[in-house]
Amino acid sequence: MKKLVLAAVLAILCQPVLNAQDIPERKHDDFRPMEARHHKKPRPDMSALNLSAEQKENFQKLRTEHQQKLKEYRERMSALKKEQHEKMQSVLTSEQKEQLKKSREAQKVKTEEMMKKRAEKMKTDLNLTDDQSAKLDKTRKELGDKMKALRENKTLSEEQRQAQMKELMKSHRDNMKTILTPEQLQKMKEQHKRPHRPETNGERKPATI
Q1: What are the residues whose beta carbons fall under 8 Å from the beta carbon of 188, sequence distance 6 or more?
Q2: What does the pLDDT look like over 30-70, one tens digit per residue?
Q3: Domain count, the chain
Q4: Range of the domain at 151
C-alpha cells in the first residue's frame, strides 16, 4: 500500500527535467517551443466588415479584458501548483523525500543519456563535423541552463516567463543557423516532415514523469 501511495506522489511531484522537447534539434528550421507548437486558428479578416469606430473600440476592450483574464488565470494556476506541491511535501516522510530526490536524479541521468544518443544520431544523419557537433552541444547546454533559470525564477509572472522563453528560443534558432550549413538545415527540415518513429529496440519507451 505504501508503495502505491509513494508512486502516486512521485507522479505528481516529479518535475520534468529539461528534455528533448526543450531542445529543438529534432524540429525543422522554424523551431518553436512547446507552448508555441499548437496550431492557432487564423484570425478573421475584420477589415472586410467595415466596422464603425465604436465597434473597433469595443473589440479592443474585449481583447484587453480577455488578455487580463488569461494573465490572472495563469497566475492562479501557478499559485495552485505551488500550494499543491507544498501540501504534498508535508505528507511525505523524510525517507520518502529522499527517495523522491533519488528518483529525480535517476530521471535526469536517463534524460542526459537520451540527449546524448540523439546528438550522436544527428551528427551521423547530417554529417556534422566535430566542430559543429561541439558547438551544438554547447548551445543546447546554454539553452537548457537558461530555461531552467527562468522556470526557477519566482519573481517573474507567467506572462514574463513565456515571453523570455520565446526570446531564448529565437536566439537558439539563430545560433543553429550559424552552425549548420543551408544544406544541413534543409535536410533536417525534410527529415522532420516524415512521421517520427522513436527507436526503442523492441522495448516500450518509458513515459517521462
Answers
A1: 28, 29, 122, 125, 126, 180
A2: 444 444 444 456 667 777 788 899 998 998 999 999 999 98
A3: 1
A4: 112-194
